[in-house]
Write a structure and sequence with these properties.
Distance between the termini: 38 Å
Structural class: alpha/beta
Radius of gyration: 13 Å
Helix content: 25-40%
Order of helices and strands: EHEHEHE
Number of strands: 4
Strand content: 15-25%
Length: 90
């Protein structure tokens, strides 16, 4: 049996998270999400995702601090990360 790839979406925009979740789940990915830096750090430890999608989370600078935490935390520093930074209407 193939292992289902786990993706963590980190963004505070519910429409973005919901739309991306729908697309990824349709392709058989296991998806979890977090809306802020603290919950993202907990989710990485709890779900141990295979990859991350990082949007622009608020307050300003949280995405940068989360990325820095991720790269400095043993076991997660080489986790694949896709950063998406677009206005909600895009």
């Amino acid at each position: 049996m193939d292992k289902q790839v786990k993706i963590l979406i980190v963004d505070d925009e519910p429409d973005f998270v919901g739309g991306l979740r729908e697309v990824l789940e349709r392709e058989n990915f296991e998806v979890s999400s977090a809306a802020d830096r603290e919950s993202a750090e907990r989710a990485v430890r709890q779900h141990e995702p295979d990859a991350l999608v990082l949007g622009t989370i608020m307050p300003r600078g949280d995405a940068f601090h989360f990325h820095r935490w991720l790269k400095q935390t043993l076991g997660f520093s080489s986790l694949p990360l896709m950063i998406i930074n677009a206005r909600p209407e895009k």
